[in-house]
Design goal:
The chain folds into 3 domains: about 5-250, Endonuclease, Chain A (2-Layer Sandwich), CATH 3.30.870.10; about 260-460, Rossmann fold, CATH 3.40.50; about 470-715, P-loop containing nucleotide triphosphate hydrolases (Rossmann fold, 3-Layer(aba) Sandwich), CATH 3.40.50.300. It contains 27 helices and 26 strands. The longest helix is centred in the first third of the chain and has 28 residues, at about 230-255. The termini are far apart.
Amino acid sequence: MSFKNIEIKKEYRIPKDNIVIDLYIPLLKEAVLYKRSVGFFTSSALMEIATGVAHLVNNNGKILLIVSPYLDDDDIEAINKGYDLRKNIIEQAMLKYLTEPQNYFEEEKLNLLATLIAQNKLDIKIAFSYKNNKLGLYHEKMGIFCDKENNKVAFSGSMNESQTAFAINYEAIDVYKSWNSQDEKERVENKEIAFERLWSNIDDSAKVLDFPEAVKKKILTYKKEKINFQILEEEIEKEIEEDNKESNYYNDILEKNTNEPNIPNGIELHPYQKKAIENWKKQGYKGMFDMATGTGKTFTGLGAITKIYQEKKGKLAVVIVCPYQHLVNQWVEDILKFNIMPIIGHSASEQKDFKKRLKDAIIDYNLGIRNFFCFISTNATYSTKTIQNELSKIKGDLLLVVDEAHNFGAQSLIKTLDDKFKYRLALSATFERHNDEEGTKKLREYFGEKCIEFTLDEAIAEGYLTPYKYYPIIVSLNDDELSQYKQLTSRISKCIINDRNGKKSLSERGKRLLLERARIVAGAREKIPILKKYLKEYVNDKHLLVYCGATTLSDDESGVIEDKRQIDIITKMMSEELNMKVSQFTSRESNEEREILRKEFGEGKLLQALIAIRCLDEGVNIPQIKTAFILASTTNPKEYIQRRGRVLRKDKGKQFAIIYDFVTLPRKIETIWNLTEDEIKGEKTLAKNELKRVEEFKRLALNPLDSDNVIEEIREAYQLWKDEEVKGDVY
């Protein structure tokens, strides 16, 4: 049998098509050669290739694979500037993402691949984009299959080698057959030429290198004496069956061809969610949902969309805006459950043609061809001229839903809030913008009054969030840090200006200095050894979170003084000194990598702790987090309220959460007594700002007495008397 006997379509779209069953497996069963360029190199991506490889082996076939190592900005800069050997940087980056298999089946997948490498049946190279003598990341995705009769099938598109890509991602590939037409034959030939130019490293726009020996040796450690083909076939069949079930779920939505919002079967909104939606309706479908982090803002928002759609008798255009790509992706997961197939707009969207999809949807909506469509995007994409121009063409009822709406108080986003949106809904756990009364005022004027205020107090009391224990830990600045802090404070005081109403505020220069001072507090060096001390009690625990400050520290432990990110120092300390299984969870990790980390963290076998900066502040749902160490020392209520909420999400077996909060003071408490009144006054601001957060966290904690001593100690030392309200100062 050859490729000619297989029914092959010109285009496959996921989730409508099941690429695994309909295309991938049938081709690999007949293939003798598979050439593939794919995205980033990770263990999961490598193991997923084994799904098809098991069939190829029977044909004595071979695979040529081009991958891209996942390098962060610092790695690329180091390579381009020659700060380190390219080979070493690449090896370390790739070894980082080659994690241990989680079960026997994954062991066998890696055993298969290791055996193929050892037998020279799998050859891997790595690629970078190359422009203006600078290296960048390589993202191209294409594949070429070849059978015994030299028939060839080529494809290109957005699909990765992963289960999510195969099953439920919004993926699309175009397929060409060498025996079909002259045009298709030429397209196949062009794909082959492009691949061969890459493989031979003669493409001017890319650099292709041999696979690092250290990484190859690591993979070869998974090689066993024999390959258990029986378990591979059985488990692959199970994977395909699960993928098919997932795919069929979304196909059911498509086959209904309703694309009409509906509350999913098995989901019952809570009473407070229903009340919020009803109040929103009473306010003319305008207003704000002020709901504590973890209480289901997304479901409430989707319930509101369903309500207005039903009330308006099926004529509605919906625009949903979120601050980050990962938050958009999480929304999409829930949107699909509500029988909505959204247009997904952001720079990394799997729907590469989302602008065309939006344009077509608007035309159809205006002509009455369709009664409903939903467009979801990031703040950045939504605010572009292209998208704003398209949205301005909508004729008819239009609903704007903004998640984490406090971000829209920024000047660049406020200007996009115009009257074209007849209906409006803002979602946030923290509407008040820190030190921005004007931005907060404009948000309230545009969206309307609160439809609900479901506080953290209520959520915990009613059992929707987990109770928590709170332990404030006092740390102090060292002499150098204190000196810098005082110098910056003096410079900040000279940047205070008066507005037209005589109200004091900071100049732009003052705001920059304020951020610089905040980084010193967040990065206080003493936090590292104290964190290590407390972590020693948790070295065998799991579901730990460490929140770092977005700052660098002077690291001279190696004998060479250099600045390193706090998160990198902590990661090294936890993994090398405490032998804990940890991973960073930051904006540098791809969406796919974050999903892997979330899964591994939840299981708790391969990963004990996540180390984050700001990536978890908004939108990321990891309910398994039980113990959190917060080093960031933020005085912004939006940030510390969000961070607390992340820890309090409900999870099976999670009776309470634990929060360790590193409270930073200018100097050690026992030395404050020797200061003059003026000296105390100069350092009082930091103490007041930190104390404000401590008192808020203590207010709802299961163990308030553990905070009382700390609070009393700080108050007495800095002469903050009990009858003096601690509001927190900016300057």
